[in-house]
From TrEMBL:
Name of encoding gene: ruvA
UniProt domain Helix-hairpin-helix DNA-binding motif class: residue ranges: 72-91, 107-126
Native organism: Oceanobacillus picturae
Entry GO terms, CC: cytoplasm; Holliday junction helicase complex; Holliday junction resolvase complex
Subcellular location(s) per record: Cytoplasm
Subunit record text: Homotetramer. Forms an RuvA(8)-RuvB(12)-Holliday junction (HJ) complex. HJ DNA is sandwiched between 2 RuvA tetramers; dsDNA enters through RuvA and exits via RuvB. An RuvB hexamer assembles on each DNA strand where it exits the tetramer. Each RuvB hexamer is contacted by two RuvA subunits (via domain III) on 2 adjacent RuvB subunits; this complex drives branch migration. In the full resolvosome a probable DNA-RuvA(4)-RuvB(12)-RuvC(2) complex forms which resolves the HJ.
Entry comment, domain topic: Has three domains with a flexible linker between the domains II and III and assumes an 'L' shape. Domain III is highly mobile and contacts RuvB.
Similarity comment: Belongs to the RuvA family.
GO molecular function: ATP binding; four-way junction DNA binding; four-way junction helicase activity
One example of a Gene Ontology biological process annotation: DNA repair
Keywords from the UniProt entry: ATP-binding, Cytoplasm, DNA damage, DNA recombination, DNA repair, DNA-binding, Helicase, Hydrolase, Nucleotide-binding
Name of the molecule in the record: Holliday junction branch migration complex subunit RuvA
Main subcellular location: cytoplasm
Function: The RuvA-RuvB-RuvC complex processes Holliday junction (HJ) DNA during genetic recombination and DNA repair, while the RuvA-RuvB complex plays an important role in the rescue of blocked DNA replication forks via replication fork reversal (RFR). RuvA specifically binds to HJ cruciform DNA, conferring on it an open structure. The RuvB hexamer acts as an ATP-dependent pump, pulling dsDNA into and through the RuvAB complex. HJ branch migration allows RuvC to scan DNA until it finds its consensus sequence, where it cleaves and resolves the cruciform DNA.
CDD domains: UBA_RuvA_C
Length: 201
């Protein structure tokens, strides 16, 4: 299996990145490819998971071992495939997801695309108690997860408004890291901030 790839980051696409390793371009699918924006045209190391199916071999890329570890745990849950696991990882940080599982917060888990109540309960049943040995979860991180859930709602609302205005997913994903870093999580203020950023692109 391919555990990691070290090479030149040459392209960032809507849902993947392209790494050039000695003249061979590897496509790695990521939760949010734009987190690697600052490393474009630089040599970097990306942790990978090599997913093998009867009809395809797919590489998934992660910014750290913790994210990769959680991905492998999520796809072991019945009802969660690789795309579903990436959608979850793209919505909140690793500690936030782990904390939600530990406190059995199925409402938080169902906020992710493709995760219904049955799947959320299955995630909790299969993974509770299996993440804390690897991931450090404190009360502070749990509080942060709650806050991030509220933040995610504002960001989601802003993203939907931008789509309605005609902006593409690529354009919206490109400014998402800057929006997440904004102090205010009010949807109206996020939309104004987003429009300002998009006008500068």
């Amino acid at each position: 299996m391919i555990a990691y790839i070290k090479g030149m980051l040459t392209y960032i696409l809507d849902d993947s990145i392209i790494m050039d390793v000695q003249g061979i371009g590897y496509e790695l699918f990521c939760a949010n490819p734009f987190v690697f924006q600052s490393s474009l045209h630089k040599e970097i190391k990306i942790h990978t998971y090599h997913h093998v199916r009867e009809d395809a071999q797919i590489l998934f890329g992660f910014k750290n071992e913790e994210e990769k570890f959680l991905f492998t745990k999520l796809i072991s849950v019945s009802g969660i495939g690789p795309k579903g696991a990436l959608a979850i990882l793209g919505g909140v940080d690793v500690a936030g997801i782990a904390a939600a599982i530990e406190r059995e917060d199925d409402k938080f888990l169902t906020s992710f695309p493709g995760v219904g109540k049955k799947t959320a309960r299955q995630i909790i049943l299969d993974l509770k108690g299996k993440l804390t040995n690897v991931l450090t979860i404190t009360e502070v991180e749990t509080d942060m997860a709650n806050a991030k859930h509220a933040d995610a709602e504002g960001l989601q609302e802003a993203a939907e408004a931008l789509k309605a205005l005609g902006y593409t997913d690529r354009e919206i994903k490109g400014i998402m890291p800057e929006l997440k870093a904004t102090d205010s999580k009010n949807a109206d203020e996020l939309i104004r901030k987003a429009l300002s950023l998009l006008m500068k692109k």
